[in-house]
Design a protein that fits this description.
By secondary structure, the chain is α+β, with helices and mostly antiparallel strands. It has helices spanning 16-42, 48-78, 89-94, 96-102, and strands at residues 106-114, 117-122, 125-126, 136-141, 153-165, 171-187, 190-206, 211-218, 222-223, 232-243, 248-258, 263-268. The strands form 2 sheets. Strands 2, 3, 8, 9, 10, 11 and 12 form a 7-stranded antiparallel beta sheet that branches. α1 (16-42) runs antiparallel to α2 (48-78). The termini are far apart.
């Protein structure tokens, strides 16, 4: 009797589930081959040749099916639809200094990071979205975050106060604020840079029928020190627009803050150069 046709499919090492799947398919192939063998043994002798040819075709079909199933199974296990890599924020911050050291950093070339203009008062109300992003830093060129610097100390300067009076001498608009920034930031022990300089509103009052808008703008950074020992400096300008639907008034307050913690008034409504109120 002719031996049953067995189809062998090489199986590479894989996970257990893959092995079980291929083993099951192989068992089906063996069983199918046995059925083919029985049919061949009991078939009509006249059709023996045709039966043998049919048996070979069926065996080939089983082999093709097994190979296809195996390829689909391997493809399924090896396919990668997408890969997501997540870096914790604390790890990102911790490595910022190492990343910055790879870049070309120039301690004497000072650049700004953050916003150069934003609003703090709109229609007499503090702008609700004021957060840490509404600030500016002055750092060495090549550094991408002020947190990559070390040695920062916080400075609060003020309070400053500005008011608007009507024709009867009554105060109808009152606005108070402070300037805040982090200073003495250094890069590998060199320089004095600025981190997160901003304007903080401490009080605002606007009578009915009047309006107040306060916007902040930042100048290009300066090096108030030397090439070997740079000191970052920024000019901060407050534009205060007030009045009624019939009239308007614009006042400015321009100051300079530095990376060594010092500051000065350049021009400010109601204040002298030494920050002494003139009103």
């Amino acid at each position: 009797m002719q031996q049953p046709l067995l189809v062998e499919a090489p199986i590479r090492p894989a996970q257990n589930r893959r092995r079980r799947t291929i083993a099951l398919i192989a068992a089906i192939a063996v069983a199918t081959g046995a059925v083919f063998a029985i049919g061949f043994a009991t078939g009509d002798a006249v059709n023996k040749s045709d039966s043998s040819h049919s048996q070979n075709n069926k065996g080939k079909a089983v082999g093709d099916y097994l190979r296809q199933a195996k390829e689909e199974d391997v493809s399924k296990w090896l396919r990668v639809d997408s890969v997501e890599v997540s870096v914790p924020q604390d790890l990102h911050n911790a490595n910022e200094k190492a990343v910055a050291s790879v870049r070309t950093v120039s301690i004497s070339e000072i650049v700004t990071l953050g916003k150069l203009a934003w609003s703090v008062i709109k229609d007499g109300e503090p702008v609700e979205n004021v957060d840490s992003s509404d600030s500016v830093s002055a750092v060495p060129s090549g550094v991408t975050s002020w947190t990559a610097l070390a040695g920062f100390q916080n400075k609060v300067w003020g309070p400053f106060s500005w008011s608007y009076k009507n024709g009867f001498g009554a105060t109808v608009i009152q606005y108070d604020w402070t300037f805040t920034w982090n200073y003495q930031g250094n890069y590998n022990g060199e320089g004095a840079y600025i981190g997160q300089a901003e304007v903080a509103t401490t009080n605002v009052h606007v009578d009915w029928g009047f309006h107040l808008d306060v916007d902040v703008s930042i100048s290009e950074p300066l090096n108030a020190g030397t090439t070997e020992n740079p000191i970052a400096a920024l000019e901060i300008t407050l534009n205060m627009k007030s009045g009624t639907v019939l009239s308007s008034n614009t006042q400015q307050c321009v100051v300079q803050v530095k990376g060594d913690g010092t500051s000065k008034v350049i021009t400010c409504a109601g204040y002298g150069p030494d920050n002494t109120p003139t009103h």
